[in-house]
Structure formats: structure tokens, C-alpha cells
């Protein structure tokens, strides 16, 4: 159970439980002075509906209630054990869908987060760089959690991946920050998400307003930029930041320098994938005002010991005892990326029957399962991170290709050092595990000369699709990868919604009803997973549209979703249509739109 306190067990004779049972459990735990486990209790009962009621009520209060229905007696000891094992071990403790910060899910980096929070309190500029899913947002969230208990800061969170943020111009973003700080000061708040507003304001006025608010503050002002790549010249969603980037960071630097002159603490924390645009000398032939303003500080993968400890502790919760060698192998194959390692163990968790637990697994037991995970799921997860790294940091592509060809000696040491900091390669200059190697190999197969091959090389219109054969192949592979990932995301969201509404058995019917009568007749009778594999692109898009409230958090604007889905369906390799450079650019933009939204869940 991965607990080190006593567990409360209550036995009742009520035929119809009320919520006061849970209140009693909560009261007993609260008055135990730390003796009892605060998140778990067992309840022996005689209520026909007690199992579901006790579980649901406990969940509302953050307590896992394990009910034991004693109406027909307890049965054999093994029956009780099997019942409890099913309730305890059927839960997947490895699977996380987003950033974490709580102690139950945050492993190996608490001291790092505290140290970062301490530095930010003294008016410093820090960065948290790394490839997707290495844990950047998690450590940022943990820093934000540590600050209120130890430091006096007014913090503005700026998630640059939000449409309303990256759509702003430099002057509007500066103005939105100042107005958010002003509102916080009026309400005596210490934390706020930026209130992004478009305003008709000049750049000098926006800078003066923000400078005034910061200098008047009684405590440290901390601006946290997450997903900063969205407001750089390489932004995949907002091309106007090619010209706005310099304006924004030039004026923010002016404010920072003035604060230093007046001994006022003004701190910045920047999270993203690359500092490329903070290192180039000029942008559009204009001196880069942000040159060396943001330090290049990487959030590397976790130390192997921390990864092993995390997996072994979580394994106990699932009834799986990983040996040191088994956990070490998982950590190595997943590059010590905490999210990837947990996904791998989640896959193993699904392959081990609950009836066989608790069980012990050694390296020989898990090696074939790890290989299956890398082939079936892991490579796809890693492809998203590697593709994004190559897009925002182009030098990493060529270097990775040389490592794949076993020619690391041809890579400049500075580039090799950066790859090590990202965790892509280890100290020996080899890929950090099979997930990285498989993902790099897969991404590079899209084209022979990298991202540029995804755009047509000729400016003149094409007379036939044969001239675009290479581009079509690359675009087709990207489209298929997006479709495959969207199937998995859609199925998981629909399944979770059905479980919450207790309508899981009717989920296949819900999916079939979204289809045309002819297709519905063909696909009726297929198991849910097989049914989803046979859904075509437009049917998948229609299913998402008809269940939009579930997917709005991923895709944002429905019209934009439908527009990009329609463009991707207009396949040049399947329709008799002449395509030119503009058509390919439009198609590629829609692919990038879907890739960036899907990446948030990988």
C-alpha cells in the first residue's frame, strides 16, 4: 500500500449508509494526531449500494475508502484478499495526464524547486529549459507552491501557449502584465494568471505603466513565462512575434535594469524548450535586444537513482515490486525522463493481471514488456518531444543524425554538450535509451534533409504531384501520426466521461450514432478498441465536434478546429488537384496546429 501509518477499519450494521459514515471516518483520522493514514480507510458494511456510495463520498473528501460487503459473510481469507487487491491494485498510480506538484507525485526535485524559489526571491532571472515532458511545468508549479510558504512575492503566471496570450502584440502583453499586477495590488493577492487584453496603447506608454507598477510594489515581483517558445520568432502559431519579440524583451530589459538601479527586486522565470532566440546576434537585421538576457539553464532528466526510487515506490501502490535491476532498466530505456518512465510502467501495469498481485518483477520479466512499450507507444510519445526540439533548435537535428550514423566525432563539442543537457545523449555520446534512439530515427525518416524538406523547394507552381513526391511522403507520415494520436486521445476522453457518468457500456452506441447510417451498419458489433481503429478522419472529426465540451480544453476555438481538420482532409495525394507552394504552406500550418495541441497531452 506504500503507507507507513496504521489504517482505520470501521464495521457497521446499517442497511442504508448516509454520508455521516464518511464524516465519522474523517473525524477519527483528524483526531488521531498523525497515527492513522490520512488518505485510506477500510469499511465493512451491509448496505447493498454501499460499495459505490462509500467510494464516491470518500473521493469527494480525498479519502480512498475500500469497502467490504459482508452481507453474505466474509468468505475465505483469500477472497477478502482478492477483493482488496482488486480495489487497491486496479488503480494506475503511474499514469499522469498533466503537470504535477503535490508530494504524492513530485519526485526527485523538491530541493531543486526550493533553491530556484530562493533565487527568484532576490531579483534574479532564471530559466527552466528542456524537451517536452521532461517536467518543466511541474517544477514551475512546484516553485509556485513553495513561494507563498517561504517567500514574499507577487507572482504573475504567463502561459504563452494560450491563444489569448500569443495573439497579443508586445505592447499589449506589457500592458496586460501591468494591469494584472495593478489588480493584484488592489485585492492584496499574491498570485494571478495574466489577464490578457488587447488595448490600443503605444509601446512607450505600456512600458512606463509596467515600470511604475513594479517600482511601487512593496515586495518582489515575479513574472513566470511558461512555454515561452510561443512568443519567439520561431513561434508555430503567431508569426507576428518575428517583429514583436525584440520590442517586448527590449522594454522588459529596460524595466529590469531600472529596478536594479533602484534596488528593487524584479524576477523572471522562463520555461521553454530553447534559448535559441536569446542567443542570436540579430533578428530581421536588427540587433537582438534579448541577447544573453535569459540564461541557458536546463532541466535535465532525473538522476537514475531518483527515477528508480520513484518507480519502486509507485510500484508498491500497484502491487508490483520492481527489483532494483528492473527499475534501473526502465529508467535507462526511457532516458530517465520521469513522464516516459511512468508511461512505461503504466503499460506494464496494464499487462499484469490484478489477480496475480502483489507480485515481484525482475529485469528478465520486464525486458519484453519494455520493448513492446517502446514499439507500440513509447516511440510515438518521444517523437513529439524530438520533433518539437528539432523545430525550435534546428542544430539538434543534424547532430542527432550524426549520432544515429555513429559519427559523434563530427559534432562540435558545444552542440554535443547541449544534447547532453537536454538528456538526448549520455556521457558516452550515445542516445539515452531506446526511446530516444527510436524517436530520432523515426523523425529523421520523414525527410533526408530535415524540416526544410516539408516545404516545397520550388517557387513556381507544380504541373503534377510527381514534383512534390518527397514533400507528400513527409506530410503523409505526419498526418498519419496525428490521426493515430487523436484516436487514442478521443477514446480516452470519451471513455473517462462514460465512466464518470456510469454509461461505459453504451459508449460504442454513442460513437456509432455520430456516423452515417451506412457506416454505422458496417461497424456495428465491433469491440470498442477495434471500432476506433476503423473510424476515418472525417468521422473522427465529427465525433469530436459532437462531443465538443470534452475536447474544447485541448483545441480551443471550434471553428478553427473544423477549419484545420477540413484542410488536412483535403489530401493532395488522394485528390485530383494541383497544389503549389501556398497550398503546401497552408496544409503544413494546419498540421502544426494539430501537432502543438496534441503535444500538450503527450
Describe the overall structure.
This protein has 602 residues and is an alpha/beta fold. The chain has 24 helices and 12 strands. The protein has helices at 20-30, 50-60, 77-89, 110-120, 136-150, 163-166, 170-187, 203-216, 241-261, 304-317, 324-333, 338-351, 363-392, 395-404, 413-422, 434-444, 469-500, 507-513, 517-523, 528-533, 537-546, 548-555, 558-569, 581-599, and strands at residues 6-11, 36-45, 64-69, 125-129, 153-159, 191-193, 220-226, 266-272, 282-283, 286-287, 320-322, 359-361. The strands form 4 sheets. It has a 5-stranded parallel sheet, with helices on both faces. It has a 3-stranded parallel sheet with strand order 1-2-3. A hairpin with a 2-residue loop joins strand 9 and strand 10 (286-287). Helix 13 (363-392) crosses helix 16, helix 14 (395-404) packs across helix 16 and helix 23 crosses helix 24 (581-599). The longest helix has 32 residues, at 469-500. The protein is globular. The chain starts with 5 loop residues before the first strand and ends with a helix.
Q: How would you sum up this structure in a few lines?
A:
This protein is of the alpha/beta class and about 600 residues long.
Q: How do the strands and helices of this protein lay out in sequence?
A:
Layout: E1 6-11, H1 20-30, E2 36-45, H2 50-60, E3 64-69, H3 77-89, H4 110-120, E4 125-129, H5 136-150, E5 153-159, H6 163-166, H7 170-187, E6 191-193, H8 203-216, E7 220-226, H9 241-261, E8 266-272, E9 282-283, E10 286-287, H10 304-317, E11 320-322, H11 324-333, H12 338-351, E12 359-361, H13 363-392, H14 395-404, H15 413-422, H16 434-444, H17 469-500, H18 507-513, H19 517-523, H20 528-533, H21 537-546, H22 548-555, H23 558-569, H24 581-599
Parallel strand pairs: 1-2, 2-3, 4-8, 5-6, 5-7, 7-8, 11-12
Antiparallel strand pairs: 9-10
Amino acid at each position: 500500500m506504500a503507507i507507513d501509518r496504521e489504517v482505520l477499519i470501521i464495521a457497521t450494521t446499517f442497511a442504508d449508509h448516509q454520508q455521516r459514515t464518511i464524516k465519522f471516518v474523517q473525524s477519527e483520522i483528524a483526531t488521531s494526531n498523525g497515527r492513522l493514514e490520512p488518505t485510506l480507510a477500510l469499511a465493512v458494511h451491509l448496505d447493498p449500494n454501499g460499495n459505490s456510495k462509500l467510494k464516491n463520498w470518500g473521493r469527494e473528501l480525498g479519502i480512498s475508502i475500500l469497502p467490504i460487503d459482508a452481507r453474505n459473510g466474509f468468505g475465505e481469507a483469500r477472497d477478502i484478499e482478492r477483493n482488496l487487491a482488486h480495489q487497491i491494485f486496479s488503480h494506475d498510480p503511474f499514469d499522469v495526464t498533466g503537470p504535477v506538484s503535490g508530494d504524492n507525485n513530485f519526485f526527485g526535485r523538491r530541493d531543486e524547486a526550493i533553491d530556484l524559489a530562493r533565487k527568484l526571491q532576490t531579483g534574479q532571472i532564471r530559466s527552466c529549459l528542456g524537451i517536452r515532458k521532461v517536467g518543466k511545468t511541474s517544477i514551475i508549479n512546484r516553485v509556485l507552491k513553495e513561494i507563498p510558504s517561504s517567500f514574499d512575492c507577487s507572482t504573475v503566471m504567463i502561459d504563452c501557449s494560450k491563444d489569448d496570450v500569443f495573439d497579443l502584440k508586445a505592447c499589449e502583453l506589457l500592458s496586460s502584465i501591468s494591469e494584472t499586477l495593478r489588480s493584484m495590488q488592489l485585492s492584496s493577492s499574491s498570485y494571478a494568471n495574466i489577464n490578457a487584453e488587447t488595448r490600443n496603447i503605444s509601446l512607450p506608454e505600456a512600458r512606463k505603466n509596467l515600470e511604475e507598477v513594479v517600482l511601487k510594489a512593496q515586495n518582489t515581483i515575479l513574472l513566470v513565462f511558461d512555454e515561452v517558445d510561443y512568443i519567439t520568432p520561431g513561434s508555430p502559431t503567431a508569426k507576428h512575434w518575428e517583429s514583436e519579440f525584440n520590442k517586448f524583451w527590449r522594454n522588459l530589459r529596460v524595466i529590469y535594469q531600472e529596478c536594479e538601479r533602484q534596488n528593487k527586486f524584479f524576477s523572471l522565470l522562463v520555461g521553454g524548450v530553447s534559448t535559441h532566440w536569446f542567443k542570436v546576434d540579430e533578428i530581421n537585421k536588427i540587433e537582438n535586444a534579448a541577447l544573453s538576457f535569459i540564461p541557458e539553464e536546463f532541466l535535465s532528466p532525473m538522476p537514475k537513482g531518483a527515477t528508480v526510487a520513484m518507480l519502486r515506490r509507485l510500484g508498491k501502490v500497484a502491487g508490483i515490486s520492481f527489483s532494483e535491476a528492473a527499475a534501473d532498466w526502465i529508467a535507462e530505456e526511457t532516458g530517465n525522463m520521469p513522464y516516459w518512465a511512468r508511461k512505461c510502467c503504466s503499460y506494464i501495469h496494464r499487462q499484469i493481471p490484478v489477480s496475480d498481485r502483489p507480485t515481484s518483477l525482475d529485469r528478465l520479466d520486464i525486458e519484453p514488456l519494455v520493448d513492446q512499450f517502446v514499439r507500440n507507444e513509447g516511440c510515438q510519445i518521444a517523437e513529439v518531444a524530438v520533433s518539437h526540439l528539432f523545430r525550435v533548435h534546428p542544430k539538434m537535428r543534424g547532430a542527432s543524425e550524426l549520432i544515429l550514423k555513429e559519427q559523434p566525432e563530427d559534432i562540435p563539442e558545444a552542440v554535443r554538450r547541449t544534447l547532453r543537457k537536454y538528456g538526448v545523449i549520455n556521457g558516452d555520446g550515445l542516445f539515452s535509451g531506446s526511446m530516444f534512439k527510436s524517436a530520432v530515427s523515426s523523425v529523421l525518416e520523414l525527410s533526408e534533409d530535415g524540416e526544410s524538406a516539408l516545404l516545397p523547394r520550388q517557387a513556381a507552381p507544380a504541373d503534377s504531384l510527381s514534383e512534390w513526391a518527397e514533400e507528400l511522403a513527409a506530410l503523409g507520415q505526419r498526418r498519419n501520426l496525428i490521426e493515430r494520436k487523436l484516436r487514442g486521445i478521443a477514446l480516452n476522453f470519451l471513455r473517462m466521461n462514460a465512466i464518470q457518468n456510469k454509461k461505459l457500456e453504451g459508449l460504442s452506441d454513442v460513437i456509432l450514432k455520430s456516423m452515417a447510417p451506412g457506416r454505422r451498419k458496417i461497424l456495428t458489433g465491433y469491440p470498442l478498441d477495434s471500432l476506433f481503429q476503423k473510424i476515418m478522419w472525417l468521422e473522427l472529426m465529427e465525433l469530436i465536434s459532437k462531443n465538443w465540451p470534452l475536447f474544447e480544453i485541448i483545441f480551443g476555438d471550434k471553428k478553427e478546429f473544423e477549419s484545420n481538420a477540413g484542410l488536412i482532409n483535403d489530401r493532395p495525394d488522394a485528390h485530383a488537384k494541383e497544389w503549389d507552394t501556398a497550398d503546401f504552406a497552408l496544409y503544413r500550418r494546419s498540421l502544426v496546429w494539430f501537432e502543438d495541441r496534441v503535444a500538450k497531452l503527450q
